TrEMBL record:
Superkingdom of source: Bacteria
Pfam families noted in UniProt: IU_nuc_hydro (PF01156)
Cross-referenced InterPro entries: Inosine/uridine_hydrolase_dom, IUNH, Ribo_hydro-like
Lineage: Bacteria, Bacillati, Actinomycetota, Actinomycetes, Pseudonocardiales
Gene3D superfamilies the record matches: Ribonucleoside hydrolase-like
Domain named Inosine/uridine-preferring nucleoside hydrolase: residues: 5-292
GO MF entries: hydrolase activity
Protein name: Nucleoside hydrolase
Keywords tagged on the record: Glycosidase, Hydrolase
Amino acid sequence: MGTKLIIDTDPGVDDAFAIALAALSEDVDLLGVTTVYGNVPLAATTRNARRILALCKRDDVPVAPGAARPLVHPHPHEARYAHGADGLSGRAGVLPEPARDLEPVDAVTLLARLLEQTIEPITVAAIGPLTNIAALLAAHPRAAERVGRLVIMGGSLAHGNTTAAAEFNIWSDPEAAQRVLTGGEVPCVLVPMDLTHRCAVDSTWLARLASSGPVGAALDALTPDYLAHYREALGFDGMAVHDAVAVAEAIRPGILRTDTAPVQVECSHGPARGATLVDRRAAGVRASTDGAATGPFPEIAVDTDLDGLRAFLLERLGGEK
């Protein structure tokens, strides 16, 4: 088996695509899925994750629910405006019921257990708010040593999507994101929305997915509310698949081109709350002007072969060769 992977997620339509991408990839050993509040409340994100795994016939994968709110401050609102009332365009109920029960432990306990049970490094894809991951690092520092890479979908280099400054996942729990991205405990790859917007798929791509078979058709059927939101946001008939882009990097390291730079998260309560401040100045300039630390810094995904990435996603989700 190839990449050993755990996904921490808040499904969400693009999260559903990301889970399916891992679940359907033969070169991925999907060890577990943990859930967090975010696009919709925790009960809904947990249900959605379990049903996507059932759709992919992956009832072997354990699922544990995690944080229902941020570390410190209340969560202002979910992203129902993009994902629909149930997180899957109102269509969660048509997905198959899972055969496997929820794990009798919380997400942080499952994460720690899976990490401690495996000798070789594990990749963790964090594609929702980072509350569970921050709690893991605080409560189980030895488990952090088993994380080979933490691939995070979140942040932005230019402007936000939830506020003028902040991307949704980071804005949902800036304190957790600050802990994870600046603590230096695990190697981080940050996949910001600047790149994931550029990786958006169009109606032709979605039609090919829908015609690929039962799983592809079921995934496409989850997109109407999300697609309607992104037609307006993107200005064409298509949608962003943010989280699937991050999981693609988790599965195939290097499919995204990265730079390395310090990252800070704005945790004030002003208009910039949740902004990711990526210092892309030359290292010598940073050191000479503000005494910046030498790292380890996160890798920031900045580019990819767009057509190659879309082909990779379609191949894995739809079985295209």
